[in-house]
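Researcher: Here's a chain I'd like modeled. Treat it as a single chain, no partners, no ligands.
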Amino acid sequence: MKFLVAGVGAIGSVYLAFLTKAGYTTCGLVKKGKVKNKIEVEGIWGAFSVPVKTVESVSELDFIPDLIVVSVKSYDTEQILKTVKPVVGANTLLLIAQNGYGNYEKAVSLYGEERVVLSRIIFGAEQLGEEKVRVTVCADDVVIGDPSGKIEEGFLKNLAELFSKAGIPTRYNRQVYAFLWDKIIYNCALNPLSALLEVNYGSLAYNPQTKDLMNRIVEEIFLVMEAGNIKSLWSSSKEYLENFYSKLIPSTADHYASMLKDIKRGKTEIDALNGAICRLGKKFGVETPVNEVITSLVKAKELISNFKGGR
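Model: Modeled as a single isolated chain. Structure tokens:
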């Protein structure tokens, strides 16, 4: 298979490095002035350095990709989906490898359900420089699937095996959309508080004040999901929170949300996380006061960071 990784930040760097190392024809689409010639990987999945190919424009690409891994921040999703259109061939599929709600929906609206593979990514990666990335934590396999059921199941299972053999643990599951929401809940509870308070996930769980806030965030999300008939892997917020504190937090306790760096740069994915919960709450007639306050605080800190930066 031939791959285009659209967006070579932390997660994109991992996909570009591991797929290149595995011997696949792979190229990364980067922003102007961000061309990479190699990627050095370190962390829990091993250490290596591999030469990579990157381009600043799809016009420079010398092949039609079989799969485009979309790994930009959620606020850039619409633009990148339009940018890659010239190299979306008759059989090209897109893999949504992003945080938050709405990315899959935007891709489907442009390309159709039969062209879009959804993933739930719950490993963490940190960029240490333009050409260096560290895989920091992994709470579970990447889960891939097709919520519409229009993409051949055998292909998706083979794709999951391909990623796993390349070094990115991945499995197929028909319920991938429920897994995505599982990650949305996780991110909504942890990311904004980690960014606002500048602490790791473990600190949030051990502090009674932040633990109470996370509980309320999660409870509101479950009310929204119930009102919107959004399927969950859990029967209740109580069941989710038991797993959250007993399994998810311990395996990622030392991790700091990438939103911490984003908020200092003045732009975050809050609109695809807690902000999306607020919008869906309004749509379904559910009040989400804690998520609204969290969203407002993050947006306020974004503005403060932009003001300090002179923008």
